[in-house]
Design a protein that fits this description.
- This protein has 16 helices and 22 strands.
- The protein has about 450 residues and is α+β, with helices and mostly antiparallel strands.
- A seven-stranded mixed sheet has the order 8-7-17-18-19-15-21, sandwiched between helices. A five-stranded parallel sheet has the order 10-2-1-14-22.
- Helix 1 runs parallel beside helix 10, helix 1 packs parallel to helix 16 and helix 8 crosses helix 9.
- The longest helix has 19 residues.
- It is globular, with a radius of gyration of 23 Å.
């Protein structure tokens, strides 16, 4: 009888947990061991409860239209705990004023031209520049171009800097003039190529509910926060899960992989290795493999978020909405703020306000070196410029994420494909997946895990 295959999953964030779950669910004939360096599972997902508040220190939700995360929650028996985000106006902070997001905008690209022309966010010349999209020729692309180049050419600098850049930075926390269009928003290029105009194409292809009628929230979380999903996965797993177990080195010997665990004399051997760690960590583990270092072109961005709780009467003239992003080239340290008690009412006790602000961007990452109190103070100072805050907050919680946001710079997908080809040729059975590679959202990471499980199934069939 053939010896059962061994699969090692390195990293116990959402990608690693999903891979372990679907290896089990799909009855893959192998023994699975999951290694996590820290003492808890979940990676960047971390929910805490304090004084009746539910506070996310990492991501707070996932997009419903990317169905994988919702399906996984339902598979775990958590469907009845799913909660949809409340809807309300979103704002752009520009020129020291909060401007409503133009209705019908798709990632900042206008589709409702009447609302766009009435917007207070743009000058007359900024609006006229955006209208040039209707007469501008199709973009010539040889390989890949930056998101910034594409949008600036079609819509002008002002629409990009005041609206598109802050929205996209909320996802990728980087400079869109370096960001790969092919790796992030290829559908915008496809739409422009097909219809000759980005605006016209989106007008024809955007679902009607996005531009008219009562909207439903597009995001989902779970009662108790996203930690509920992590706990559900952990409870469902029957494989060996080893926390507080950093991996020092992975090497190929006699057709298998030898995994050296920090502080342990005995090595672990595996037939397959699924590495879900950030690429710089993965490259260190595969120190003998030179091509691992070639992949990363740009250092990841470091960011922080600050949850601040107030009594309701302490915050006045708060607009009716769910939050705002800050336009580029503004004199603010914050990059965005969610009015969490409005977007996610279940997180906040009655009579209270919960704000979640974000700091850290390319060129301002030193803000993370300030103390918690200093970061909270600068956030409140920025917020006081647009709303009345009286008295002290009940508490604040600062979370720093160092080198947490991978940068999909121009040529990213070509580098991913090259890396995957090199792995197939030189390290067969090794898979590198996670937010570094093919999507930063939770469903994107889950999709990568599921594809890897299917690949292993195919190899074993």
């Amino acid at each position: 009888m053939a010896e059962r295959k061994q699969i090692a999953i390195i990293g116990g964030g959402i990608t690693g947990l999903t891979a372990a779950y679907y290896l089990q669910k799909n009855n893959v004939e192998a023994d699975v061991t999951l290694f996590e360096a820290s003492d808890q599972l979940g990676g960047k997902i971390s929910t805490i409860e304090r004084d009746g508040f539910t506070i996310e220190r990492g991501p707070d939700s996932f997009l419903e239209r990317k169905k994988t995360a919702k399906t996984l929650a339902q598979d775990l028996g958590l469907g009845d705990r799913l909660i949809r985000s409340a809807t309300g106006k979103a704002f752009i902070l520009s020129q020291d004023e909060l401007h409503p997001m133009p209705a019908g905008a798709v990632m900042g690209v206008p589709t409702d031209m009447k609302t766009f022309m009435q917007s207070t966010l743009f000058t007359a010349s900024g609006k006229l520049n955006a209208l040039k999209d209707f007469v501008t020729s199709r973009t010539e692309v040889d390989g890949d171009i930056s998101v910034g180049h594409f949008f600036r050419r079609r819509l002008g600098d002002q629409v990009v800097d005041r609206l598109i850049h802050p929205l996209i930075s909320g996802i990728y926390a980087g400079n869109i003039d370096n960001l790969s269009l092919k790796a992030t928003f290829p559908h915008f290029l496809q739409t422009e190529q097909k219809y000759g105009s980005l605006i016209r194409g989106l007008q024809k292809t955007t679902p009607s509910q996005q531009t008219s009628g009562k909207k439903q929230g597009m995001f989902l979380t779970l009662d108790g926060g996203l930690q509920t999903l992590v706990n559900g996965l952990a409870d469902a797993l029957e494989c060996e899960v080893r926390t507080s177990t950093p991996i020092e080195n992975v090497s190929r010997q006699d057709g298998r992989y030898v995994i050296d665990v920090e502080g342990e004399e005995d090595s672990f051997e595996a037939d397959y290795v699924i590495a879900t760690t950030p690429h710089e960590v993965t490259a260190q583990m595969f120190a003998d493999v030179s091509f691992m270092d070639d992949f990363q072109q740009t250092k990841n961005t470091s960011v922080a978020n600050v949850a601040i709780a107030f009594d309701e009467e302490s915050v006045k003239n708060l607009p009716d909405g769910t939050g705002f992003v800050v336009s580029r080239k503004e004199g603010y340290r914050i990059t965005a703020c969610t009015w969490t008690h409005k977007k996610w009412p279940h997180t906040t006790p009655e009579g209270s306000v919960l704000l979640r602000a974000y700091v850290g961007k390319p060129g301002d990452e030193e803000v993370l070196e300030l103390s918690d109190d200093e970061i909270a103070d600068l956030v409140i100072e920025d917020l006081k410029k647009i709303m009345t805050i009286e008295g002290e907050p009940r508490f604040h919680i600062v979370t720093r994420w160092y080198n947490a946001m991978p940068q999909y710079t121009v040529g990213h997908l070509d580098r991913v494909k090259k890396l995957e080809t090199q792995l197939d040729n030189e390290l067969p059975g090794v898979f590198v997946i996670g937010n570094t590679y093919r999507g930063v959202g939770l469903p994107d990471c889950m999709d990568q895990a599921i594809r890897t499980v299917k690949t292993i199934e195919t190899l074993e069939s």
